[in-house]
Amino acid sequence: MRKVDEIYWLRAYGCIAVFLFHLLDHVNQRVDNVATDLLRLPLVLGTPIFLFISVFVFAVRYDKSVPEGFLTQRVKYVMVPYFVYGFIYSTAEWVSLQGSDEPVGFVANAIEYFVYAGWHGYFLIIAMQFYVAYWLFTRWQLWRLNPVPWLWGACVISMAYWGLAYWLGIDLPGYLLWIAPLGWIYVFFLALVLVRYYPLAPESVLAQRPAWMQQLAQPVWLVLLVALVIAGTFAGQLAFSSKEVWVIPFFVLFTLCAMRYLAGCTVPVWVRHVNVHSFGIYLAHPMFFVLADLAVAPLALPVVVYALVLIVVGIVGSVALNKLANTFTLGAMLFGKQLKVA
């Protein structure tokens, strides 16, 4: 069984995409136009990539059964950082609001962060739901079913979920709308489908994949969809986030294409380093963006220089914190464990 090098590329891409998406949130405070909207186009894939990898890797590693303590380990290394960083971000928000015209209570603010998942760590709640779903998938032996029809049904369900939620103007506290599994179920089944047809053994060949998979993995379909999205952007018809109807076909086509053409590509050192610190970068980078903002606010820097400062501080700070935390076991559990990359 060979290593799944494609996942290294996807994880690095997902980490950088989330990092740059949040960077643009700061840049948009200075400049906001169609160009900055289009810059978000390749970045909306960050969250679904992380969710896809979480299922794909476990399905490859564990196949039809998971080891004892599977969920306990996930709670330890996923949910503990959720509460640690949630406390850091919620407390910082509470402090910053005390001097404003709309101060909030500490407990009310904490509920917004912890219970309503009202911060960027909402992804961890979705991931935890996926871990439970995969545990049930193996426990109930659902691997006996063909996941392909479930994938198409899941795509319809997720598209309907986001479409109806926005059309009806549903507004739930925090990010409760975002963490509902119906909006992400397509990612779960896409991972199961690709694992089923993934060439794990040397004798496996691409021809063993279904015709529809080979066809949709052709770049032409992805290019056509991107062209439509760009046209919709100039028409002012689209919003850019990972929680949009159009992101679902975009992510499916992107993943099919990426998993085909990244196969066999040498993984460079920088991609491996991003993988090692990806979890820590994901969790910590907004904190360092804010610190950089406070430091450069009086300087009135040009927007390009300002963005470069945020990038350097965000990366260096997040990686340094991740390295420091992982010098001891408890630190890794609290602040995000480094990945072991061969």
In summary, what is this structure?
This protein has 342 residues and is mainly alpha-helical. Helices cover 68% and strands 0% of the residues. α1 (5-27) packs antiparallel against α3, α1 (5-27) crosses α14 (303-325) and α11 runs antiparallel to α12.
Structure notes:
With 342 residues, this protein is mainly alpha-helical. The protein contains 15 helices and no strands. Helix 1 packs antiparallel against helix 3 and helix 4 packs antiparallel against helix 6. The protein is globular and about 60 Å long.
Q: Which descriptors apply to this entry?
A:
15 helices; mainly alpha; 342 residues; 0% strand; 68% helix
Layout of helices and strands, plus pairs?
Elements: H1 5-27, H2 34-39, H3 46-62, H4 70-98, H5 106-114, H6 122-139, H7 147-167, H8 176-179, H9 185-196, H10 211-216, H11 219-234, H12 247-261, H13 269-296, H14 303-325, H15 329-335
Helix pairs in contact: 1-3, 1-13, 1-14, 3-6, 3-9, 4-5, 4-6, 4-15, 7-9, 11-12, 13-14, 14-15
